[in-house]
Amino acid sequence: MAPDTVSLRYFLVLAQELNFTRAAARIGVAQPALSARMRRLEAELGTALLVRNTRTVALTTAGAALAESAPPALAALDRAWDAARSAAAGGPVALRIGHSLSAGAETAPALVDRLMRGNRGLEVGAAPMATPEISAAVADGRIDAGITRGEQPGRGVRRFLLRRARIGVQLAQHHPLADHPEIEIAEAAGYPLRLPDRAANPVVHDQLSALFRDVRPHPRFHTPAVSFDMSQRDLRDGVTLAPAGEAAATAQPAGLTWRPLRGAPSLTYHLVLPSEQSPLHRRVRAVAKALAHELHWLPDRPTGHGPWRVGSASAGSPADGR
Asked: Whole-prediction pTM value?
């Protein structure tokens, strides 16, 4: 029999505090009551979760495993309760989507529009988030789904390839390379290259810099002082280039253009859903899959590279953007 969720939630607070007095104060119960709850929880599971002495509390191996796996399970349960209550009341069902900033130009709006048009009674809210936070937010239930550039690391989620895009560079229309239909990587490396701040998306930063790893002499990289400047004013010098995905070509400020880099790998967008999925999550996945094929977001690939296979927990796929 599964443990009661109240005891499980109490355990998670204690796992954070590692102190019965502080945990009891946070929960709002007496310390003896919390201790009794934890003893019953351990008895139900048939294993020790905590190592206690007069001064300290520590998690056992089983306790650490439960502390890691329980939050997404409880979040999924909470969403199920909320959906049931909303359906019983005849009210709308809310869907919260977090997306990388750069996915907000085209990918996220297209998915939100399709979800709202095809699902009466569904209220969809989407907002940009720091990319490294999206997987964790999906896992712990702060949001229901995410869209990231690159296969971002994280536990408690499943990732599905949503879109592939070419990688190229943004540059001024009067740049010496602007009249090239495609630009060689070695040619681009001869000019100053602006990269996104690594803290905003390590996966993206590392992939973009890796494009030029074997070029000699090494190119000059720099990070802009303003992390997201809609005007792209630093490219207007006619010298600086900014590696970017082809989505940049559809929302180009006046005076700038975009050219693909010959031989560069694809950039990817991923749909992020909880490991334990509700019917609503499965609906989001089905709508996203249909949209990706309709808009030709996923060019044909050899057998064995299916776009809707489950992604791994580590970052290993190409990525671009925040």
From this structure: 0.65
